[in-house]
Design goal:
- It is built from no helices and 14 strands.
- The protein is mostly beta strands and about 150 residues long.
- The strands form 3 sheets. A 10-stranded mixed beta sheet has the order 1-4-3-2-11-5-8-9-10-14, with no helix packed on it. A two-stranded antiparallel sheet has the order 6-7. A two-stranded antiparallel ribbon has the order 12-13.
- A hairpin with a 6-residue loop joins strand 2 and strand 3.
- The two termini are about 20 Å apart.
Length: about 150
Amino acid sequence: MCDYSLHAVTSRPAKVGESLVSTSFRGTSTRGFAAKDEPTVAVCLLPGTELAFEQDVRYNRNWLLTKSAGFRVAQFCVIKPKTPGQHHDALLFPDGTIVLVNLLSEGQHARVLQLPAVWLTKKSGAHARPAPDSAEQDDRVEIEPAQQTS
C-alpha cells in the first residue's frame, strides 16, 4: 500500500529481494520507499511485507532529533486504515513498537525479504499463495493510537 498522499506519485508494487531507500517524494509531504534506481517512483508494500535494513532504523522525533528503533528488521503494517486524511503506512518492530513510515529518516537502505502470503479458500480446503503484484489488499492491520510511537 502507498500512503494516501502518495496517490499522485507514480508507484509500483514491491518485489522480493529488491533494495529500497527511505525518501521524500517531490510535491508531497510524505516519506515512503523508492528503489535505488527509480528514486521518483514510490514502491508500495503490502501489510505483512518483511524488510531488513542495513543499519538500525532511525526515525525523526522532531525537527532536529532522531531516535533509533534498535532493530534492523521490521514488518510493514497499516494503522487506522478507515481514518481519512492521515498517514497509515507504518513499520512494526520485534518489540511491538510501531513507527509511521512518514517519520523515517531519509536515506535508509532496506531489502524486501518476504511478501505476505494471501490465503485462498477452495471447496477442498484453504491454502496459501504468494501475494499478488497489486499493492491493494483488504486485510489491513488496525492498531490503536496508544501503541504508536510519535
